[in-house]
Structure formats: C-alpha cells, structure tokens
Fold this sequence. Notes:
Helix content is 44%, strand content 17%. It is of the alpha/beta class. β4, α5 (122-134) and β5 form a beta-alpha-beta unit.
Amino acid sequence: xxxxxxxxxxxxxxxxxxxxxxxxxxxxxxxxxxxxxxxxxxxxxxxxxxxxxxxxxxxxxxxxxxxxxxxxxxxxxxxxxxxxxxxxxxxxxxxxxxxxxxxxxxxxxxxxxxxxxxxxxxxxxxxxxxxxxxxxxxxxxxxxxxxxxxxxxxxxxxxxxxxxxxxxxxxxxxxxxxxxxxxxxxxxxxxxxxxx
Length: 196
Ligand SMILES: Cc1cc2nc3c(=O)[nH]c(=O)nc-3n(C[C@H](O)[C@H](O)[C@H](O)COP(=O)(O)O)c2cc1C
C-alpha cells in the first residue's frame, strides 16, 4: 500500500520561488512510489481564519475546507515546504494549518525550508517545528534547508549545479526518514487506536 503524503506550500507572492521546491518534493516522492500531492495554500485560498473547520456544524464547512479536511485525515504523513519572511513563517501557510487540529493528529511531518539567502529558511523551519508538534504531528529529526533557492532549482524545479546535487542527497535521506516514520505510525494506528 503506497504512503499518502501531502506536501504543503504557502507563499502568496506573484513571483514566488518556493513553488520550485514544493514541485521538486512532490515529484521526488512520487518517483519513490509515494502518493504525493501538493497542497498549495494560495490555490485553496482560505480567508483569514474566522472559524476553525471543527467549529462548523457537520456538513456546513465551505467546500474547499471540507475537501482539505478529508485529505488531511486520509494522509499518512506531511511535508511542509516553508519559506521565511523576516525570520518568521509565511502567513498563508500558517493561516491554512490553523483551520485544522485533530485532523493532523498521529502522523509524522517533515520540514523542508528554503530562502534566497544562505541560511535556507532555518529560522522559519525552527518555528514550524514547535507549531507542528503542538498540532499533534510527530516532527521527524531530518530536515532539509535549501539556501539560494533560485540557484539550487531551476524554474521548472529541477536541481542545478553543486547546490542541486547537495539537495538531492539531503532530500533522499529526509525521504527515507519520513517513509520509515510514516509506515511506523500507520502500523501503530492499525494495531492500537489512538488514545484520543
Ligand atoms: C517579506 C519578505 C521577507 C523576507 N525575509 C527573509 C528572511 O527573513 N530571511 C531570508 O533568508 N529571506 C527572506 N526573504 C527572501 C526570501 O527568502 C525569498 O524572497 C523567497 O523566494 C521567498 O519565498 P517565495 O518566493 O516562495 O515567496 C524575504 C522575502 C520577503 C518577500
């Protein structure tokens, strides 16, 4: 049975670059036999949070929110492709994740950060670590930090040069780690229903 992994990305900028990395992550996971799907916050475009998904009476949440809730519940694991704005998280992705809570529980998540600079969005990645743990995910210890995003991946999301080679190596290890935890969590959910 293939692992189902959702890859989240949340820049709303017209000239956004992180989509290269999100596409790369989806494509690379798919090439490893994963059922990977991109969840693009800009494309779903939920408004600034008013009511969380669970605050709607059953069946009355807006369609895009209901569809996404179903996908999150069905997933075996998550990847968060996170850029960095002023040492912080990108608001579009944070807004989307805050709509949900229990839907995230009992699955692993991995963080893939990026930036235009050399630190690869590591400061935003660190913030996401605490947030994803608070939302009931088990954050794996492997992470990927991609600096100089436009030099590392070309406009079609293909690795280029030395930096691209380095990404391919680090992403392979990250994907191995995520796959191991994804399968471990799925087996445990089947063996023992989650306690709450
Ligand atoms: C509002 C804003 C703030 C930024 N702050 C940071 C920052 O704190 N650290 C950093 O490394 N890059 C920063 N950058 C540069 C981004 O890493 C770069 O623009 C990246 O491509 C943004 O992701 P996106 O293109 O997917 O929106 C910032 C960019 C913007 C637009």
